[in-house]
Amino acid sequence: MLANGDGTLSRSAVNPNAIAALNCTGTGANAVCYGPNANATGDFTTAIGSDSLANQTGATALGANASADGVGATALGRSALANGIATSAFGLQANASGPGATALGDSANAIGQRATAVGTNARAIGSGAIAVGSVATADGDAAMSLGVGANAQGVGAIAVGWGGQGHRDQCHVSGVRSQCRLRQHHRHWYRCRHHPREPGGTRAGR
24 is in which domain, residue-wise? Predict the structure, then answer.
């Protein structure tokens, strides 16, 4: 019931969802929250969305169940998770964990200091690992994969191209479905680079 300026009364309906959205917690200087059970804890934090969490100075969480836990962490998207100082997770269930890690894309995962994963289901696991492309995987410190389904596993391993497979440390491959693995020759192990065959059966190079 509201009182008008002329003394008359009027009734105003309030949406129950609007009231529930105010059931949030903001703790800290300039902390902002909105959404049922949203929680902004720390100075300059922002949590918007049901059950969202922004924890530590400058953290920002936007989306239902989004969680940004770390100084300057940013999580954008439903169930996005940014865990660590200056981490960034953008997309449905994107996951960035480790100082400076960045995950961009549906279910992208960047785990490790400054790890970067870009693309649907891209995975970068290890310090400085980089995976770019749908279902690309870089598993190892400083590993890098570029291309749909590219897979680099090992410290410093590099796989470039659709379905490229680089397994073992310092293994470098490029080209469609190229592979690199350790092979045994004269009782010694050595690393190899595999390049796809060109038309006519000749190799592109070694």
Answer: 9-83
Beta bridge partners of 97: 83, 111
| 105 and 79 in a common domain | no
The string of pLDDT tens digits covering residues 149-191 is: 999 999 998 888 765 555 444 454 444 454 444 443 333 333 4
Question: Is 51 within the bounds of a domain?
Answer: yes
Beta strands 182-185 and 188-191: pairing type? antiparallel
| CA-wise closest residue to 167 among 131, 188, 191 | 191
The sign of the torsion formed by the CA atoms of 111, 113, 117, 118 equals positive
Residues in the chain where the model's pLDDT stays below 70: 1-21, 162-206
**C-alpha angle with apex 169: 167 to 174, nearest 5 degrees?**
55
pLDDT confidence of residue 159: 87
Domains of the chain: total: 2
CB 164 within 8 A of CB 173: yes
